[in-house]
Amino acid sequence: MMSNIDDTSLPMLQQKKKSTKETKTTDFRVVIDADGELCLAVGEESTVSFVVCPRTLARASPVWKKLLYGGFAESVRPNDGNEWVIELPEDNPKAMEVFLNIIHSYFDKIPASVHFPKGPIPAGATSFKDLYRLAVLTDKYDLTRLLQPWARGWVKDIETYDPFNTNKWHDEGDMALLPWVAWEFGCEALFRKAVKYLCLHCITDPNGDLRRQRISCESPPLFYYALEPGSLSAVIKTNRLQIIAEMLGPVKDAAMLLLEETECCHSPKQNCSATMLGTMVKLLTPAGLYPVPEPERIHISVIELASKLKPLDSMKNYYDHTSLSSIKLLGTRIADKIVSVDPQLEDFYVQHLAAQSKKIGLSS
After folding, report:
1. Which of 185, 226, 275, 306 has an alpha carbon within 20 to 30 A of 178's alpha carbon?
2. CA–CA separation, 60 vs 145, rounded Å?
3. Separation of CA 112 from chain center
4. pLDDT tens per residue, range 198-236
5. CB count, 10 Å around CB of 36?
């Protein structure tokens, strides 16, 4: 992100150190407006102080207008000659600098593109994580409309990095951030794509709560590091269970048909159904899928479930010896089905996305 507070430029900033008994932090000072009368102390562990014009903030944001001139404690200016300071420990300094530059009309300092690959961020670009942090602030301070000149380009950059192409999305954690970015920018197509990805890739804990899929360590809750749009967890859980039910239904039906089938289509002396049922049991049992469980008992991701069902295709050697043609390439058909998954969204989500799209200028 085009910021005065990235790692390479920190030594160049005016610094003042302050110590406490518990911690020692460095407060970096960034002058946005040389005539500014207000200092915003942003961040908690390493605070960055921004000198800004309070009236500019009030004109840009109704939230800031109430905060600065609405009778709150923050609106009281010191009368002893000390600096007017408002502490914002929960806000991100990098994101704050971007939106302060926007409202103070320093448009040449606003990132024009979103950078995904690992490595240094090019000049004039921002990382996806920093874009997410900016989307958090624009929602908090009701500043979404001010992103109109850049939003379309940012969304286009995000859309070029297909979340289903793991070679491009190098950090799966970004996928938990994507719903909020799409939510704030009003991009329904991107929002649906993110929801679909999470439906297919999330796991659940023993209580049925969604977790991010991780390989080598304990998985955190899905939205542990990200804001959750509405009750999106419930939406993902509902759609995920429906997908799993549609995957396991044919398996359960096939097992029942094999149990009921008593004669071979070629010879009554052969019992192909019993052979196929034995093969199915042998393939599914090690994966914990036989007897075929209820969808609520599946804690692995939909993608992993499809992988565990794929070996059912090995029963193809028996297809010409039974009337149960519906079992043909069962594993492959189940895997193919998830490609066409289209998560259902309530009207609340669709209406909000449409309103945000209009506000930020994507619908025009």
Report:
1. 306
2. 10
3. 22
4. 999 999 998 889 998 764 446 788 999 899 999 999 999
5. 20
